[in-house]
Amino acid sequence: MDIRKDDQDLGKSKRPLKRSIFLFVLSFITLLCLVLSILTYRSFNYSLYQSYNKRMIDVLEYVYSHIDIEDLSECVETGIESEKYTELVSFMDSIMEDFDIHYLYIIKPYINGDDYVMMNVISADTAEGRETDPDGYYLGYILEDVYEREELVRYQMYLDKDNISYFKNFSTWGYDYTAMMPLINSKGEHFAALCVDIEVDDVERAIQTYTVANVILIAFLGAMFFILFLLWMNRNITEPIRKLERSVVSFAQRSHYQHDPSLLHYEDPGIHTKNEVESLSNAVNQMSQDMQVYVKNIIDAEGKVQDMKNQVSHMDILAYQDALTHVKNKAWYDKTEIRVNDDISKGAARFGIIMIDLNNLKKINDNYGHEHGNDYIFGACHEVCVIYDHSPVFRIGGDEFVVLLENRDFENRETLLQELKNAFKLFMEDDSREPWEKYSAAIGMAVFDKDKDSSMNDVFKRADKLMYEDKMKSKAARN
User: Fold this and answer.
1) Residue 87 shares a structural domain with residue 148
2) Is 284 in the same domain as 340?
3) Both 292 and 422 in a single domain?
4) Engineering a disulfide at 436: which of 362, 372, 452, 468 sits with its beta carbon 3.0 to 4.6 angstroms away?
């Protein structure tokens, strides 16, 4: 374990609290300002258009109160201007002078198949406008190339209604917000439409000005709240926590593998926030004092415990480990057999056994001595352990080994068995090796069958039988 790296990691925060709070509050204030700006824009947009609707209604109703409907209907039908028509023109001109509107007019759309036109009835104008164009648009004047068919269809649709309609209208005269009142004579005919326009640019400019002013105000208030909140947070939370972290990290670094309780000293950061952070600091301070006493008691008992553990570990090694090969011995095999038999009784067993008997051991002992015989056993066992690195290997006799196949090695048992046989074959055919390095073995493998086997020993016997048959075949081939 790298103690220095651990000490460095103790004092290094991946996500510092102050930065996290800063980013969260900044994101929250930004989102809040954005939402409030959108709500302000939509609310003011709705309110402003509502106020324009009311103003245009007042204009329409005021003009309508001065219209002789029957007289105007006859003028539209005959195309002849009456005295009341002339008076109405003058009145509507005065409205243009007195009210802040873009256009005030009466029109009549005509749609007949592919033919569509808009007929002017009255187009109000200011005094300046009349001087510039004294004739203006007269009764019956056809407005050509001004309205598209779709616009005329829309005007006709609104004309057929009985109430006032509102819509945005884009034409050669500009982009306007229009209020349209149908004029209905005594016969129930919708003979013309009284319209008043307000420039949309004026409306949008008013909305934009108000929105910008409110966004600036909201942003300013958000920034003030952001700064004040961070100052308060830094004084009462983040800075005290930083001091507490520094003291705790310093204490933790000094405590790493420290066996001297007197060096387990915690430096009080001196936090006086009168909140939970101060309580936490006091608790850590008290905990460090308790830890000194606790560690002292632990260290006193540690020596005795370690001695006992060493004795137990040594006894385990002597009892269950083969001294030569360091694999598990017959005692451990017997203990494992109890566990496997228990699995069999519970119906949870799924295993195989490989029985391995080394060839030529007696020959090597007789010709080269027991020392090389031990080398032969150790080397052959090592190859078995390498191939079956996920399974326990047991030395149950001088030249006999057992491999218990479970889990991954059980799934790959055929592949691993062939790999082991190939490995021993290569060792035997390698003439560059010493005789005690040419490992050879008879091998038998059996798999647990719940219909035939009632114990682990049943599987062992079948593996041992197959191993013996393999040994006999090997001897016959050599002879």
Assistant:
1) yes
2) no
3) no
4) 372
Sorted by sequence, the CB contacts under 8 Å of residue 275 that are 6+ apart come out as 236
Last residue of a domain, one of 174, 206, 238: 206
Is the whole model's pTM more than 0.70, yes or no? no
Amino acid at 169: N
Supply the range of the domain harboring residue 117. Answer: 45-206
- The 10s digit of each residue's pLDDT in 348-379 is 999 999 999 999 999 999 999 999 999 999 99
Beta strand pairing call for 174-184 and 165-171: antiparallel
Amino acid letter at 32?
L
Position 319 in a domain: no
Q: Does the pLDDT value for residue 448 go beyond 50? A: yes
Q: Which residue has the higher pLDDT, 304 or 123?
A: 123
- At 99, give phi and psi (nearest 5°): -110, 145
Predicted confidence band of residue 1 (pLDDT cuts 50, 70, 90): very low
Which of residues 222 and 316 earns the better pLDDT score? Answer: 222
Residues 442, 377 share a domain: yes
Please tell me the distance from the alpha carbon of residue 34 to that of residue 30, in angstroms, as a whole number: 6
Same domain, 432 and 377: yes
Q: What is the mean pLDDT of the chain?
A: 83
**Same domain membership, residue 148 and residue 178:** yes
Same domain for 180 and 109, yes or no, is yes
One domain for residues 287 and 392: no
User: What's the domain count of the chain?
Assistant: 3
Contact partners, residue 21, CB within 8 Å, separation at least 6: 230, 233, 238
- Calculate what percentage of the chain has a pLDDT beyond 70: 83
Query: 237 in a domain, yes or no?
Result: no
Residue 75 within a domain: yes
Is residue 439 a part of any domain in this protein? yes
Question: Which CATH number characterizes residue 417's domain?
Answer: 3.30.70.270
